[in-house]
Amino acid sequence: MSDQSTPHQPHRHDRGHDHQHGRREQQHHGGHGSGAGRWPRFRHRIAHLVKPHSHDVADKVDSAMETSAEGMRTLWISLGVLGLAAVSQAVVVVVSGSVALLGDSIHNAADALTALPLGVAFMLGRRAATRRFTYGFGRAEDLAGVLIVLTIAASSALAAWAAIDRLLNPQGISHLPAVAAAALIGFTGNEWVARYRITTGKRIGSAALVADGLHARTDGFTSLAVLLGAGGAALGWRLADPIVGLMITTAILAVLKSAVREVFRRLMDAVDPALVDTAETALHQVEGVLEVGELRMRWIGHQLRAEVAIVVAGDLSVRDAHRVAVDAEHTLLHAVPRLTAALVHADPATSHDEADPHTPLAHHHAHA
User: Fold this and answer.
1) Which residue, among 103, 8, 78, 112, has the nearest Cα to 332 in the 3D structure?
2) Fewer CB atoms < 10 Å away: N or C end of the chain?
3) Residues 14, 19, 23, 28: what is their CA dihedral angle, to the nearest 10 degrees?
4) How far is C-alpha 35 from the geometric centre of its chain's CA atoms?
5) Nearest to 335 by CA among 316, 364, 366, 308
6) Directed axis angle between helix 21-29 and helix 318-335, to 10°?
């Protein structure tokens, strides 16, 4: 399909108002001074007073930079918190000789190191698109998500192996109060990091950061296993630690399933159906849009893009059809969270006795 509308640069929903917006609106709508088009433009200007945003290309880049910078800040803070937890636990391991706590400290250290692939992904995501990577490098986050899922799987396997080994070869634990305190430190640090990563990941739309937060939560469960095992040992039940460890392994597998599902959906370009419903509802409210045809959306890193075909009156000029397409794109950018760009194609409405304008493409679709 040949597009009647040229794809625009991504729009940014910014706190500051773009003072050049009025001139751009005249460029978008120039030459269309009919009374029918004045009310939508007036309504749009009022909307900008409530929810202003910028159309500057530099601001579009800044938006991506800000979300990546927020992700990087989250990773570095998480790395520091988990690093301190791991070091604290390692000190207690030296004193107590607890194998369970040693495994927990290894988990915490590994979780901290998962910040590295995400950090690389966020840095790659800042790079501008090239002739080869025309959509940019945002999908590097999805690759990082795969590595994180593999790390969660390895952690679950290690937890299971440690629990089975301890079940077959029970061992005593010394300095139980110190071990319990270290376990609480590990759980608290991991749970705090998990919530921080998941909250930031959802806010900036990063599935990989959410998966990394889930991974931190798995290590928190492992810390609880150490605590419960220490409590059981204090009561004289030496098998408490391995039995609880197996239970925690099951919980880790449940978290792994959730992370796999999230990353798999992102790799398969899945989006929340509610976003599609929101986009369709918004498009139906645009003046000049008679029908909404094919609508596709996909995540590229933590930014959302859309492609949509709309039906407009068949007797519109190219300029008028373009104006409707621009209005449709603009409406989508306001209505759909995290949407940074939309490509809108305008199809002319046809009567029953008119040929379908897409007939020349029919044989291509048949072989697709």
Assistant:
1) 8
2) C
3) 10
4) 42
5) 308
6) 140
